[in-house]
Structures are given as C-alpha cells and as structure tokens.
Design goal:
This protein is of the alpha/beta class. It is about 45% helix and about 15% strand. The chain is built from 16 helices and 9 strands. It has a 5-stranded mixed β-sheet with strand order 7-6-3-8-9, sandwiched between helices. Strands 1-2 form a two-stranded antiparallel ribbon. The chain starts with 13 loop residues before the first helix and ends with a helix. About 30% of the residues are buried. The N terminus is likely disordered. This is Integrase catalytic domain-containing protein. GO terms for molecular function: nucleic acid binding. It holds the Pfam family rve.
Length: about 375
C-alpha cells in the first residue's frame, strides 16, 4: 500500500505564497503580467513575423469581412493583400447561426489575442494543471492559431504549477503489458489521515481508494472513511457493476485487500483473478504508484485554486481532468480509449447557448434550425 505524503496536497498559506512570490523566476500569475511577457516575446521576433503571429480582434474583424466579400469584389477599407491571405488560410463556419472564422486546415475556430489568457486558463484547468503538451493538446482540440511559445509563457504565470514542482520517480525496469480495457485493474490506497475531511459528526474521510485501468490509464478515485475490507468492497462493486469486472485485480500486499475482499468479490464475480504485488516492492505497482503522485499533485493544485480544504469535493473534477487529457504513454486521452470518442463537455455550440442565455427548449430549437 502506498501512503503518499500529505504535504503533497497541503495548500500554501498566504504568508508562504507571499514569500515564494519574492523568489527569482516566480511570477504573480496576473493577466497583465502574462500579456506583458507576450508583448516582449512579440518584440523579440523579426518584424515581418510580428503582425501575423497572433490574430488580434481588429484583424479578426477584417478577416471576417474579407471572407464575406463576394469573389471579384473589393473593399476600400481592406487591402487586397489581406483579402488574398484571409481566403487562403481561413474559412467561415456557422455555429448555431453565428459566423465563426476557422482555420482552413483543421477547421478549428480562431483564438484571438485578447482571449489568450482566459482560453489557456480554462484549458489548463480542464487537464488538471497538466504540463505544456497536455495543455497545448487541449487548446488545439478546440481552437487554432495559438503558438506553443505563448502556452509556455502562460505556464510560467500559473501559480499552482510554479509553487508545486514534482519529484522525479524511478522507472519500472520490467513494464507490465495489458491486452485490452479492464484486462488489469490496479488499485491502491492513499493515506489522508494527516488531513482528514470532516463532513459531519459521524462522517470523516481519511483515505482515497485509487483505481487505474492499466491499458487505457482511465482513473477512478473514491473517498473512504477507513480502509476496512467492507468499505473497499462497496466501492469496487460499484465500479465493477458500472464498467464490468476486470480480468485481473492487481494490488499490493495490504491486508485491506486480502481475505474478506477476495471472498466477497469472488462470490459475485467468479472469473475475477486476484494478484498481489511483491512485498516492499512498489515497482511492481509502477502504474498506480505514478498515478498516485499525479492525483495527489493535481488535487493539491485544485485545493489551492479553489481556496478550500475539502479534498473529497475535488476528486471528481480532478479525476475528470486527468481522464480527458492526453497520456504520454498512449498518446490519447484515457476517455477516448475507454469510450471510443472525445468528451463532449466543452463544445462550441453549448458555449454559444450559454452566452445567449438560452434556457427554453423552444429557443434552443430555433437556434439549431
């Protein structure tokens, strides 16, 4: 069983944060500071590349007008050279009846310069403070024309990422091979007894049951009051009846996963095989051990971002962010591998529905038509 140090999810006090902000290389995380650094980056480019590195609101409006011009016509307010460039690189897509300028190559809406900070912040939170590659993949799945260098600048302005540097972990010498989804499920407990969450007088959460599908890297996490066999079995039965039982249930040598757990699960799932890792050898549980660190780090950032100490409330959004960001191992999101499709929580259509404050079914039908 892995007992991840509670300090990995401890929020920083205001005094600690203030002292760390004085350290060299630590930024204040403000939107103004972000755009100041972006402008410095633009100034460092050759003059011929500066204008079209980003699409500003003024340029976006000109591109839209250029694309709406009939072929063979011109406009006195828009240079012919700009019209030619716009028609070569962009197209218009109608989303819920609104004309949106999209890149002609990937059909993704343009992200204008003025929206960089908010878009990157939203995508960065969606992947639970994943690094540059995961954040960039999330942005590119929804928008176009966002330079990698600007994403790197944004990450330097993300306070939770600056104040929490993960330690390198050892590499597993003999990787475990899985043949398909739910072939091997690895489970472990994360010890949270040093910072229990008191829900009520009779409910105090002190542990996290962490499960990960070895093939897809899809993750589940459940708060537990204690690590008794009874509590563990309740959560595992809930998982198995939703996603189906795994072929192999892989855990360490903790007594909480022995005896009663095996007997109860075997009664309902007779084909389930139970495998224990080597005693005092966490490398045999490498996948779940690394995932414990990722979950604890992301949960700590969520607590700091939301200014709360109730970590059970953060398990669902953090796990969703981990499951919908690209895995370095599979080069796809665990959600895609598990369900065969992208998550649908951030579509452009529903953003427009939200912006127009549509709450009536009849108005929604008119918007679709």
């Amino acid at each position: 069983m892995s007992a991840v140090a509670s300090s990995s999810v401890t929020t920083l006090s205001s005094t600690d944060t203030s002292s760390l902000l004085c350290a060299p290389g630590i930024t204040d995380g403000s939107e103004k500071g972000f755009f100041d650094d972006v402008e410095k980056y633009v100034a460092s480019l050759q003059e011929k590349y500066r204008e079209k590195t980003f699409i500003r609101k003024e340029t976006y409006d000109k591109i839209l007008k250029s694309l709406l011009l009939e072929k063979g016509t011109s406009s006195e307010s828009i240079p012919t050279k700009l019209v030619f460039w716009a028609r070569k690189n962009f197209i218009i897509e109608k989303i819920a009846g609104t004309d949106i300028v999209c890149c002609s190559k990937n059909k993704k809406p343009l992200c204008i310069y003025e929206s960089f900070f908010n878009v990157m912040k939203e995508c960065h939170l969606n992947v639970s403070h994943g690094g540059r590659t995961k954040t960039l993949n999330e942005i590119n799945s929804h928008y176009s024309w966002v330079p990698r260098a600007v994403v790197e600048i944004f990450l330097r302005h993300c306070l939770p990422c600056q104040l929490r540097k993960p330690l390198k972990q050892s590499v597993v010498s003999k990787p475990i091979i899985s043949l398909g989804v739910m072939t091997r499920l690895q489970i472990d407990l994360i010890d949270m007894r040093t910072r229990p969450d008191v829900v009520s007088a009779g409910v105090v959460y002190c542990w996290i049951l962490h499960c990960i599908d070895h093939f897809s890297k899809f993750t589940w996490a459940y708060p537990l009051e204690n690590k008794s066999a009874k509590e563990v079995v309740v959560k595992l039965r809930q998982l198995f009846f939703t996603f189906g039982p795994p072929r192999l249930l892989h855990s360490d040598n903790g007594s909480e996963f022995a005896a009663n757990v095996i007997l109860e699960l075997k009664t309902v799932f007779p084909n389930l095989c139970f495998i224990r890792g080597r005693p005092h050898h966490p490398q045999s549980q490498g996948c779940i051990e690394r995932a414990n660190g990722v979950l604890s780090l992301s949960l700590g950032k969520w607590l700091q971002t939301n200014n709360t100490t109730h970590w059970p409330e953060g398990l669902s959004p953090v796990v969703y962010g981990i499951n919908t960001r690209t895995s370095d191992t599979t080069r796809a999101t665990p959600y895609e591998i598990m369900f065969g499709q992208h998550s649908r929580g951030d579509s452009e259509f529903w953003k427009i529905v939200k912006d127009q404050d549509i709450v009536d079914e009849e108005h929604l039908r008119q918007l679709i038509i």
